[in-house]
Automatic annotation (TrEMBL):
Domain Gfo/Idh/MocA-like oxidoreductase N-terminal: 5-115
SUPFAM superfamilies: NAD(P)-binding Rossmann-fold domains
Source organism per UniProt: Dongia mobilis
Pfam families for this protein: GFO_IDH_MocA (PF01408)
Gene3D superfamilies cross-referenced by the UniProt entry: Dihydrodipicolinate Reductase, domain 2, NAD(P)-binding Rossmann-like Domain
Lineage of origin: Bacteria, Pseudomonadati, Pseudomonadota, Alphaproteobacteria, Rhodospirillales
Name of this protein: Putative dehydrogenase
GO MF term list: nucleotide binding
Amino acid sequence: MKTYRFGIVGLGVMGREMADLLAAHPRFSVAAGFDPARPQVSFPQLPSAEAVIADPAVDAVYTATPPRVHEEVVRLAARHRKPILCEKPLAHSIASARACRDIAAEAGIPAAVNFSFAARDVALRLGYVVASGQLDHLTGISLRARFAQWPRSWQSGAGAWLAGAEEGGFTREVVSHYIFLANRLFGPGKLQKALVTRPAHGTETALVAEISHGDLVFHLDAAIGGDRDDDIRFAVTGSRGEAAIVDWQHLEFTGEAGPHYPASAPLDHLALLLDGKPNHLATLDEGLAVVELIEAMLA
C-alpha cells in the first residue's frame, strides 16, 4: 500500500505528538518540519514553512501552528498542491476559516480538520448508540466542562497565544470538539444564546450557551474551576436513558454500543483521505461551521 511522507508546520506539543503518531503508523512517516523555536525532534527541520511544504520529499502537510497562521499554511499547501490536515480550530476568525475552505476547494487538494471525535472509537460508538434508537426519543444534549486552570498545565509551551483573546481560550480549544460532534450527530447547530464571562484582558473564564439542532437543544456549561486539567462530560439524553462521553475517552452506556475501533482509526482514516477514498475525517466545511458557532458565542 502507498505510504505518505508528512511535513509538519508547528512543532509544539500537538505537532510533536502527531509526529510520533505518524512515525508509528505503517502508512506514514515524517520527512521534515518547521518551528521557529526549533525544538529537538528526530527528523530534519527546514528554515521556513514554505521550505517544508515545497520539499519534494513531502507528500502531505499537517499544521499545528496557532490558529491565526492556518490560513497562510493552507495557502502554501494549495500553491504546492499538497494535501493538508489542519489542527482545530480551522482558523481564529470566520473570515479566515472561510478563506481556508475556499482556497483548498479551489486548489482541489484533499483537506481535513483534526477534530478528535471525527474518527475516534468513543465518538463512533456514541454515534452507533444514537443511530440504533436505543435512547428512543431524544430529549437533549449537554456539555459540562471544568478546567483547573487555563492554559492547562501541559500547555505551558503554548501559553502565550492560548491565553490570549484573539485565538486562545477553552471554547476554541476544547468546546469546539464537542460542537463538531453535536453537528455531526444531529445536523448543523444554530446559536440561541450565550453568556461569556471574561476579565478585561485574557480569555473567557466561563461560558453558558444553548445551540439548537432542530428540535434538540444543546446546553453548554464550561468554566475554569476544579482540580483537574479536564473534567468533561458530553451527554445525549433520550426517553430511555442516556449515553455520555466522559473525559474524552470513556463511553458511559449500559446498552449495546457496537464494535470497538482501534486507536489507529483516526490515522487509518487520514490514509483513506489521501488515497481518495471515503473517510470519517472532518471536512473544512465542518470546520467552518464550528468556527461560525464558536466566534458567535465569543463575540
